[in-house]
Amino acid sequence: MEVSHRLGGRTGACKGSDGVRRAPVKRILQAAAVLGIAVMPVLGNASRAVEVPPRRLLEVVDFGPPVVSPDGKRVAFRTEQASIERNAWDTVWYVQDMDGNAPPRRVADGGIPLRDAAGGPLATSVVWSPDGRWIHYIAVMDGKIDVWRAAADGWGAEPVTRDAADVRGFSLSRDGRSMIYRVGATRAQVVAAEQDEYDRGIRIDRKVPVGHNLFRSLDIQGRRATQRYEGMWFGLAPLLADLPDQWKIIDLPGGEAKDLTASARPAPPLEPSGLAGVLPRPWKLAVEPEGSRIALLTRVGEAEGMREPPHVQLAVLSDRTSTQPVICGSALCTGRAVSGIQWRPGSDEVLFTVTDPEAGFAQSIFRWNVRTGEAHPVVAAGGLLSGGRDRFSACGVSAVALACVAAEADRPPRLERVDLATGARQVLFEPNESLASDMASAAPARLLRWTDAEGNAFTGQLFEAQGVGGPAPLFVTYYSCTGFLRGGTGDEWPLASLAANGISALCITDPPGYILDPVERYGRGVSAVRAAVDLLASEGKVDRSKVGMGGFSFGSEVTYQTLMRSDLLAAASVASTSIEPNYVLFSTLRDDAFFGSLRSLWGLGTPEETPDRWRTLSPIYHLDRIRAPMLFQLAEQEYLFSLGLSLPLVRRSQAELYVFPNEPHQKFQPRHKLAVYERNLDWFRFWLRGDEDSHPAKAEQYARWHAMRTAGDERAKVEGLGGP
């Protein structure tokens, strides 16, 4: 894959229309030479057709949270990129000067990315040595999770811990001469416990995930692991994960690990429960480095049918025993959707991020002086300006600048420096520049705002169909649409590729506030889709008879409900299951760990206890209302939960069901992701445009889909509805 860079600098840099400083071409070529990257000139007609196929969206380079060095002069960060050929993810650690005058220096491989049990990537964490010579990080190498360190000058990397057990967490001493870390069961103990179960049989109890493959079914910590339920709902953890932490200390460099006495163990990080009991519990806090002050974000106001109060209050405490918070009273931090906080080193300022729902969840950063009470804007972005894909993650920070990952709906992520005094933005590293250029010309997105009949306000990012003379087909996905949009939440539907193939693609973000009543919660989503279709059809932009929809997790649920409650959809594709009795069957031993959430979030007991509620909410009781063809592309860990809906539709030639082995809630294997992207593109091109890929390998696929169309026409005639 061709990769190129934009490297901002203090001299010789040019400024783009977005106000971000970029390096001239000569320095870009020099940087590419340092990194060993070929930069090919663009020849021929500048107006040539540009395509954004699904593979390019999958192979985007992502960033982990940047961390600035103690002296503020350098930033360390990790990149992650899919490899289709090896069905793996490549990760690399870099160190770069914050002035942007040189390209980033590759200092180490990052190993296999760690993921949570749902398949989502875990945030990377790096700790600088006090002298700035080393970065320390957790990495999975050769099936072992250890703490590694890499020389910031690129000299090399080496493991620090070399423990028989996987490392769960670590910290450096103030002088950097020792490291404390914690582990659980040894890898040999875990393997032995798994094998013992395999040999003797697995006794099914409340912790066994019934419906999953039970032996080493999922790669969640760099190896295929047996899992057990942990906590509420569908939380999972490896076997023996419930064993307590064992703490150890090691002298650096190269010392022997020793057990740490209980009295020498570090205090746990401050949690909201550790504050004075008279205070409302904050949902986020930030302790002042080298100090005692604590910045807080607390939800306030009347919940009124919501899970949480609607507003956010920014405040600071003098220390953890204080009961008198100082509240930010500036207009810049009141009545705003404050989503992140951190201290500006060596100052009285708290930096806070506002993620604005009315601006499509674009982010702005402000600084609040807790002594004077004054607040000032730092920078406003058109998308995310954070520590990565997670909008709640933090930029790296020094006394004078931020190091942020910036991304917009149609512009992939890059690393930027933001000056805290002036707000000036400077691109440090842009490995996705070629894709960014092609997206700008072939698949630009625009922010769409609208309201439904009840006055609910919505936003979405619209990729308009290319090369269509009249109203275009429309694809809709619903849930969260922040940062660079590849395929909506879960990355399943290649939005830019759909637009390039003549199908407008709209990603709708669920408004803030989790509605407790599921009928209202789903109703808001269905209403958002209906109102968006009405708006775009009234403008002559889309053909309301050719609307498709897809969703992941909550987005899948809204897709099911849209099929049940409306005739909007001509085709649908889902990546997750629906609420149906199989949920209860497979979780019947889990007591409140499962049924507590089922009652609180859906108002459901067993189907025998709440039959009317089940008939209202579950799609399996509304098969007669679901008329659109459906594509199920589900993870092996979950597909059994949906068989009450998927199999009847497959049986009557109205659906296809694909199951992806060794995948959790969110698929992450690159080959699976590419297959999902490409099949979804084919699916909606066929049902919304009548287009077919001429590749011979797909002939059987289209034969099945033509048979599905014929079966649908026959059902419509019998029901007196007419053909599609």
From TrEMBL:
Annotated ranges, domain Peptidase S9 prolyl oligopeptidase catalytic: 530-688
GO terms of molecular function: serine-type peptidase activity
Entries under SUPFAM superfamilies matching the protein: alpha/beta-Hydrolases (SSF53474), DPP6 N-terminal domain-like (SSF82171)
Superkingdom assignment: Bacteria
One GO process term, biological-process aspect: proteolysis
InterPro entries, A to Z: 6-blade_b-propeller_TolB-like, AB_hydrolase_fold, Lasso_peptide_isopeptidase, Peptidase_S9_cat
Protein name per Swiss-Prot or TrEMBL: Atxe2 family lasso peptide isopeptidase
Annotated organism of origin: Luteimonas granuli
Highest classification ranks of the organism: Bacteria, Pseudomonadati, Pseudomonadota, Gammaproteobacteria, Lysobacterales
